[in-house]
Amino acid sequence: MGFLTISRLEYSYHTMNGETKALSDINIEVEKGEFLAIVGPSGCGKSTLLHLIAGLLPSEGGSIEIEGKPVSESRRSIGYMLQRDHLLEWRTTYENILLGLEINHMINEKSKARIDELLAAYGLSAFKDVLPRELSGGMRQRAALIRTLVMEPELLLLDEPFSALDYQTRLKVADDICGILRKEGKTAVLITHDISEAVSIADRVIVLTKRPGKIKKELEICLTLPDGRKPETPFEARSAVEFGRYYNKIWKELMDDEGR
Question: How far apart are the C-alpha atoms of 201 and 149, rounded to whole Å?
């Protein structure tokens, strides 16, 4: 059994106009420390799947378990990063990072020391007392990640966390955040529309069909640089020998599903 186990998951949206099936028969196992990416057409249920894993939506069939326990009993073990950083503009970087700890009454000397450690490790110590508007986009995303990590989650859910950034910043922040998560040994599930991002970041990529989302393809990602080394960062991974082959396989799966 994996760290995260999703079995026969089903979900539909219900409106006055009737029922819309969003996800059908989703079965996924994620091992501890694995980085999984999920791609699929717009509207196929990718973000809905993350909401279900996070316990923000109730599933209508099947099960989601973390280390054998229903997700409803493990919510504190889950961290969620959204497309935008959602930093509060009237709070300093440090005060934003404290927010989750405040809400959960978890501020103590140990948690404060952990914040200082993360700020130093990821280059934000000098910016702890500034407001979000004084931070670059990449700094804001690092602050948002630290805010998530201080809650000590065992599973990170990433809903297109780089999509609001310009291309150059996006590449740098992807390197930063993936490096942080690898160093911390976190298990992560990334939702993205960007095939290059999925291949360069993930250990495994799952391709969903158009709605209702079903698993169409799974690819284990194994990359090698021209000099025989394994890539150390997502940016390096884009130069891997196998990168284009994985990209084309995923592209073909998505285009076949669109009937092209």
Answer: 19
Helix (H, G, I), strand (E, B) or coil at 36: strand
Least Cα distance to 189 among 23, 11, 24, 30 occurs for 30
The confidence score (pLDDT) of residue 15 equals 74
Instruction: Dig out the tokens for 200 from the structure.
Output: 């360069």
Kindly report the backbone phi and psi dihedral angles of residue 224, in degrees, each rounded to the nearest multiple of 5, phi listed first. -135, 130
The span from the CA of 87 to the CA of 97, in Å, is: 9
pTM for the model stands at 0.87
Residues (pLDDT < 70) of the chain are: 1, 74-76, 257-260
Report the alpha-carbon distance of residue 157 to residue 134 in Å, rounded: 27
Measured on CA atoms in the order 187, 192, 198, 201, is the torsion positive or negative?
negative
Return the pLDDT at 258: 61
